[in-house]
Amino acid sequence: MSKKKVVIGMSGGVDSSVAAWMLKEQGYEVVGLFMKNWEDDDDSEYCSTRQDWIDAASVADVVGVDIEAVNFAAEYKDRVFAEFLREYQAGRTPNPDVLCNAEIKFKAFLDHAMKLGADLIATGHYARVRENPAGKFELLKAFDSTKDQSYFLHRLNQAQLSKSLFPLGEIPKTEVRKIAEKLALPNAAKKDSTGICFIGERPFRDFLNRYLSHKPGPIKLDNGQTVGEHIGLSFYTLGQRKGIGIGGLKSHRNADGTSEPWFVARKDIASNTLYIVQGHDHPWLLSSRLDAGQASWVAGEAPEPRLLSAKTRYRQQDVACRVLAEGTDRFALEFTDPQWAVTPGQSAVLYDGDICLGGGIIDGALGV
Predict the structure, then answer these.
(1) CATH number belonging to domain 5-204
(2) Rounded distance between C-alpha atoms, residue 27 and residue 20, angstroms
(3) What end-to-end distance do the CA atoms of the chain give, in Å?
(4) Burial, 62: exposed, middle or buried (Cβ in 10 Å; 0-12, 13-18, 19+)?
(5) What is the pLDDT of residues 107-166, one digit of tens each?
(6) pTM attached to this predicted model
(7) CA distance linking residue 345 with residue 360, whole number of Å
(8) Which residues are catalytic?
(9) CATH superfamily of 284-367
């Protein structure tokens, strides 16, 4: 019987490198695929595509797998970046990694891999897939809860999951580093990439500045008092504390002489007004309910209304909520405890224990 062929996305990072080695150890025929998704200013100090390709090719050589590079920059610009800019221009705060996984890594990449004769694809994501007794594929959290990336994968469907492997889902990140060192991989000590997939480590505001039109407007307090001028609503996100530009603003003092920080609390697109409030627990920063659209369910249908848990941002603990489906592609979440800085444009992702059920894009939230 011939080996199953797996095409794995190799980014040049340590996670996908170790994942490729693991698959080979498990007896698969493994082929690496390096995706180039961004071409604008690729020669700048912030874009490391060239070095990433060198790292990926060097690892493939050590592990003993073939690797090829494929350019998805056009698809990325059309399907991910254009939407990213539309959302920012509308005053929302999108999560491009969610869209990149759904549109590039598990669509364009999957299609390309199938043309290469792959049986399955794999990535270095920290997540798990299993087939349940009913024959449905489930997306599960990784064993290493500090690295779990199911939040970013919640838009994957049955067809995509049935073809996907996540070799790192059952081992901790510390073990991944140890394996890389033991194998003497050339990127064993390489830092994990942070920041948005196509932007790299560049200053985010500078980057947005090149692509978005921006119109200054008033910064106001919750009582309507104008206290400054913002540089454009696209450049602020709810809950933001630093870089608001209100350095001279007098703060209310506590009895002990300390003062509470200021936070971005609302963006009024119609009047181009940014509202700020003082104190982490200001009522304007708390929400008891959110509404979401563009729903995507792993099982192909919305979960029954019941008590579940959710994340409204990646690094958040799961919080108890009740889900209310509103048609085929909309839902609402009612929280047991009010949630802080629920941000339109971010993803609300639902869980039943370790099982990721899917989610949607936050449209808005209701206060406490």
Answers:
(1) 3.40.50.620
(2) 11
(3) 61
(4) middle
(5) 999 999 999 999 999 999 999 999 999 999 999 999 999 999 999 999 999 999 999 999
(6) 0.92
(7) 9
(8) 100, 197
(9) Translation factors (2.40.30.10)
